[in-house]
Design goal:
By secondary structure, the chain is of the alpha/beta class. The protein has 2 domains: 323 residues, Spore Coat Polysaccharide Biosynthesis Protein SpsA, Chain A; 29 residues, no CATH class. It contains 13 helices and 11 strands. The strands form 3 sheets. It has a 7-stranded mixed β-sheet with strand order 3-2-1-4-9-6-10. The protein is globular, with a radius of gyration of 20 Å.
């Protein structure tokens, strides 16, 4: 199936080559996101062809997490528009709320036909031609890799939560998907790391309202709280499912699982982008120390470009969690999984730890 998706991407490269009417939205805050965002911006501007010169809006929604001064210097050099309006004052301890709030703001204030949200922990490699949606599609996403807090339907521990969220979203269709990595059948469950939408459809404002309603009206267990923004997005997609177009995994490629996807016909070289999540944190921590010792923004950019070149060729040995030796040992021995199993409180994700 993944090889067929790849072929469909290649077939679409024959579409018009004029610059699309689109804008990128990213979220950048103080700390490790600064270094990751710099690498995202550099690879986007370098590698994404006709998409590389489109406007990029860098949101910093939480007032107390304003990026460092050098980040704004880098924005100027890379032609990035900062948005520091403090649009997330209600959720100071929940950074993922930045996504629906930023996208709703962009939808209301920008004038482009399409909006593309990108997580900051992304590296861009090949032009994303499928970001230009066809006429009958208003939103496009990639299915998530694992079940985590999705629902498999009747009898699932999270099913009641999903039914309530579907009611809030006004979803009358109940689409099911197979998770990309683990192949589990679940209610529509799409990653919020890469979002393509038609601005005039107003879907991002609906996402924001659904997210706020979930926070106010739906009690969820602790493991669900972190992904409330993705649950609300997936429910909104279900409510407009006739306007939805799936994106192939190459458009949200988890490079940490490259061996699995290579066996299925999609290698890292085929990927439009790599979404590495926390699996390059150790390498980025070292890059961050190097960048902070640079005296100029240009020196920081040069340092980041060298890092990108190294990641592109040496990623297999660079991938890994930024954790202590003891924590790594506990994870590999599945200590937490074993303890939860003995106590009868196993999590759905334990099978993939």
């Amino acid at each position: 199936m993944l090889q067929e998706q790849k072929s469909s991407v290649d077939a679409n490269l024959g579409m018009t080559k004029s610059a699309p009417s689109a804008a990128f939205v990213i979220c950048v805050e103080a700390g490790h996101l600064e270094y990751k965002a710099l690498c995202l911006l550099l690879t986007l501007r370098e590698n994404w062809g006709r998409w590389a010169q489109l406007p990029i809006y860098a949101y910093s929604p939480r007032p107390n997490f304003r990026p460092s001064a050098w980040v704004f210097d880098a924005y100027e050099q890379l032609d990035v528009i900062p948005i520091t309006d403090g649009i997330n004052t209600r959720f100071p301890n929940y950074p993922l709320a930045n996504k629906p709030l930023s996208m709703a703001h962009a939808e209301a204030t920008l004038d482009k036909e399409f909006l593309v949200f990108l997580d900051s922990d992304i590296l861009c490699w090949r032009p994303p031609e499928l970001f230009q949606l066809c006429d009958d599609a208003d939103i496009s996403l990639v299915v998530d890799g694992t079940k985590s807090v999705a629902s498999s339907g009747s009898g699932d521990r999270y099913e009641e939560i999903w039914r309530r969220v579907y009611d809030i979203a006004g979803a009358r269709v109940e689409p099911y998907v197979d998770t990309m990595l683990t192949g589990e059948r679940v209610r529509g469950w799409w990653s919020s790391g890469v979002i393509v939408c038609r601005r005039s459809a107003g879907i991002m404002d609906r996402w924001k309202d659904c997210f706020n309603a979930i926070v106010n009206q739906v009690d969820v267990p602790s493991e669900v709280e972190y992904l409330r923004e993705q649950i609300s997005l997936s429910a909104i997609v279900a409510s407009v499912y006739d306007q939805f177009a799936p994106l192939p995994v190459a458009y949200n490629y988890p490079v940490q699982n490259y061996a699995h996807y290579r066996r299925l016909g999609v290698s890292p070289r085929d990927a439009v982008l790599w979404h590495y999540q926390l699996f390059l944190n150790r390498a980025f921590r070292k890059l961050g120390r190097q960048i902070e010792h640079c005296s100029t923004t240009q020196a920081r950019i040069v340092m980041a470009k060298k890092f990108i070149a190294r990641v592109q060729t040496e990623y297999p040995k660079m991938l890994g969690r930024d954790e202590s030796w003891m924590r790594s040992l506990r994870r590999r021995m599945r200590v937490g999984v074993r303890v939860r199993k003995c106590l009868g409180i196993a999590k759905d994700t334990d099978a993939y730890v």
